[in-house]
Amino acid sequence: MRIVSGIYKSRKIVAPKHLPVRPTTDMAKESLFNIINNHFYFDELIVLDLFAGTGNISYEFASRGTEHITCVDQDFGCIKFINQTAETFKMPIQTIKSDVFKYLEKATLQANIIFADPPYNFTDDDFAKIPELVFQNNLLLEEGLLIVEHSKHTNLSNLKNYSYSKSYGGNMFSFFEHTLP
């Protein structure tokens, strides 16, 4: 994987092969960050990266100037890799080793961007729990976005707070926002 833009642009990051991950493709990542760039100033963001895996998305935020990034993943190897990479590049990334659903039930951190990249084989109920817990526990700041990455075979448009989706190859991003009363 490589960092697409920012101060670490074109830097390659090689994750250990044994990690249980499926990193977001460079094409999908670049398109996603073009959308985010049209809505936010990166240096003003608080980012929560759920199911962080290799930290691929967090590195993009850090490279673009985001200084408040928290990664949550339950795999010790993933957390260790993110910590090592963040230290190498002096990136402001904090990690939490936890099951994401348990974390969301107790979290108090509010963020402008919450990015979730759960396993593509999640059930519809598992996918639905992500926005449910985020909004129920008021974790997304008022003008923020919850972005859930999933396969094109998963449809999240029926979930509360759903706004729109974008498709890039086999990847889809579904965007959730606070709804107006």
TrEMBL record:
Gene3D superfamilies: Vaccinia Virus protein VP39. It is an enzyme of class 2 (transferase). InterPro entries: DNA_methylase_N6_adenine_CS, RNA_MeTrfase_RsmD, SAM-dependent_MTases_sf. Keywords: Methyltransferase, Transferase. Pfam families: Cons_hypoth95 (PF03602). Signal peptide: none annotated. The keyword RNA-binding does not apply. NCBIfam families: 16S rRNA (guanine(966)-N(2))-methyltransferase RsmD (TIGR00095). PANTHER family: METHYLTRANSFERASE. This is 16S rRNA (Guanine(966)-N(2))-methyltransferase RsmD.
